[in-house]
Amino acid sequence: MELQHVNVKIYVEGELRIDLEQLIEVFHRWVSQQTTEELLIDVADYRHVPAGPSIVLVGHEADYALDHADDRCGLVYNRKAVVEGSNTDRLKQALRAAIAACKQLESEVDRPADLRFSRQEFEVIINDRVLAPNSESAYSDCRQEVEAMLQSFCGDTGCSFQRHSEDPRCRLGVVVKTSQPIDFTSVA
Amino acid sequence: MKASNELWKESLAGKIPEQLVEEIETFEVEMQLRSQCKVDEKVFAETRLRRGVYGQRYDNGRRHDGTESKQLGYSNQKQTKGPDTVWDAPGMQRIKIPYGGLNPEQLELLAELAEEYSDGIAHITTRQDVQLHYIHVENTPAIMRRLASVGITTREACGNSVRNVTGCPFAGICRDEAFDVTPYAHALTQFLLGHPDAQNFGRKFKPTFSGCAQHSCGLTAMHDLGFTAAIREVDGEKQRGFKMYVGGGLGAVPRQAKLFDEFVIPEEILPLSQAMAKVFGKHGEKKIRSRARLKFMIEKMGMEQFKQKVLEEREKLEHDPCWTDYLENIDSWQEVPLHPAGETLPENGDPRFNQWRSENLRQQRQEGYVTATVTLPLGDMAPYQMRGLAEIVRQFTNGTVRSTVEQNLVIRWVSNDDVPALYEALGAIGLNEPGASCITDIVACPGTDTCKLGISSSRGLAAELRNRLERKGFELDEAIRNLHIKISGCFNSCGQHHVCDIGFYGANRTVKGFKVPHFQVVLGGQWEENAGSYGLPIVAIPSKRVPDALERITDLFVRTREADEAFTKFVGRIGKAKIRQILEDLTEELPEPEAEPTFYADWGDPRQYSIGDIGKGECAGEVVTQYEFEMAGAERMIFGAQVSLENGNPPQAGEEAYAAMLRSAKALVQIQYDDVTNDAEEIVEEFKERYFDTEIFLDPFAGPKFANYLFAAYDAFSVGAVEHTSESAHHFVEEAQLFVEAVHTCYNRIRSEPGILSNGTSAR
Ligand code: SF4
Q: What DSSP assignment string belongs to B278-310?
């Protein structure tokens, strides 16, 4: 199974204490300064949709969002463009980009203490139903791929995994809890 | 862009109607040709528009960040999908939903598409369509395939074509309707989709159906073609029919539709629509885009002459069984409930439930059933909500849900007994907001969020007003609860700001050397009676002061309203001058930019306001002549012939090459005679008479050679299929290519020597 279009959602720790207006400003600044590896295009505001994508930073190769899906707030990295290499390469690329965005956000909000992302809990979703249907066997394959990636990414062998949803209409996804916090500062 | 685009083609093979497969494959070839610069960008733009693939803000590859306009760094800035439209820049996919009718499978599929290709939101428009934003053009064929697998086409969702046929979301269940208009709206949709007589418009053409005259569900007064259901008695028998209206439209120059016929019998609605399409195609303006809508043609021609031309055209039409076939199955459209009729509608002690019950539920004509309106703030829905809604619709009904022109959804056939459970189920997915069709249920076009023409942030303002009004909640005076607010980002009125109690449309002003976003306040419009009257702008207010303006207007209404006076009547009585007077100070003494920079930014957008991102809109489509369209088709066929040759299929290559010759010959014939059919004999005869015998087609160097290729091909194919070998097919494809080239050359000659057609000048 080829795992393209990987999404990674890193949860916000505790309650979100920042005003989302502030985040809109930060995202606009990122577009203006083109701060990420991807070409950034626009900011979409969906705060009016309950448990929706909230604020989306739209890019060419990937989108970023501060998303409230499943009533859990987190930073989503949504890879849209194809990534060459192995599944491990693709998973790593998405996780790295998500962490980089979290780091940058934590440092750019007015009061950094108000926004902290989890170092131990995140989701991996494969945003393509024909490449990765949400079946039991696909989940098992995907889980192994994520496990292998994490071993090479941070040497963690004690992670726990949970299927994101068993509803076949939903996308294939894995919720990951690492045994040790990931050190964001060491992720290039 | 997506790794899986080809896989969808394979996995959906055999699950999509053949005609849709062909259409999507044709579009893919057109995309391929455009990417090789073999199709003109203007022609490709109109082609994709007719597939619902629309432009979006910043797709010229630039974006203003508040201080300067910056180039967005697409790696291939030169490749375009239309004039000044970068190939890689994201665009919008419009999805036609005829009369708003959706089923649970379609909702689920739309959720998948929003998630996989868009930014995680599906948007309901003011014409019952669904839109997905930020879509890469290369993903659109996969999107179309997936839509086709659940019975949806995007064909003619944009461009100069017959747009979505809208209709009452309460059709079939409304207490006030004459009869259910759904089957008629469906029949017109199917009949005009891709109809050859509806392909040569200078602008779009919007039809609608309404079940009654008094309500606003169909908005017949603001459509190019509007049908209002009516019943008459003939010899004691009740007969169904329609009041037929034509030439309505909003936009910068709004016009109320005029009555074309007091009573059109069902057997005549399709042929009359066809005749009207022909007249619009023949006589409508093609060059001046701002005057190309049907309303202007009727104005110029006069209603009498227009009517005469339509009726003459109607007389000439050859009978088509499709005109009446559908009437045999009219009764099969009757929807059936899932659960038995309920007892009286329950109430409980929860004030929010009771508010929802009184604002969002509507008793059906069928005792014991209600419709429930799902209010969608700004018309937006997240994928989990759509999946949840699909489940709810399955659980409580037989799969009956419709989108509305107020950007909401209506669940039909809910048993009264199920109402509390429905409310709970909707609440679990954040969809049991009260306030349907009330002052908080604000309609807004995309505005500066995604529209290339947007001047001010209609969605930003709508969100702000909604938040403020909701905070007031129960404090809101009863008199203003049921007012309608509609907002457009510019004068083009996609937010339908003319037909509501209080409308706003985007404008800009320069103050202290800075641009300031504004909104014109529009009063005097009427939502009821199918958009019975249009409002007029009274004053432009800076965006950030619009909430204050709204408060003052509504306060005045509450304070000085007479008895049960309607808002439109109040505006008429008080006068616009007086209302303007109470708003005037809001336009004065604006703060210094340094002291209050947010005043110089728009709602929901922290950038210093500018109009630097306004581009050329695609609402008007591209002015592409019928000739250019036919030739694009011919080019595609030639390309197909080459592919067939490569794939080792010479007979197929031969047929495609011949089809390309006929199509390009037809393109020329049509310049002089636009009723030419697709019949090979007719095309060749007309071509011979008009272009060969007159020597217009003769090549300065090759003489009759290229024309003779066509005649020889016709002679060969008219007696049966031609058995081509690989070599003969190769030669034949070359000849066809030369003939197509010669048609281009001839056309260019005609354009540069305008008298050539009347003189029949020899090219030698
Ligand atoms: S009204 Fe103007 S801003 Fe709004 S969608 Fe139409 S063209 Fe765009």
A: HHHHHHS--S-GGG-SHHHHHHHH-HHHHHHHH
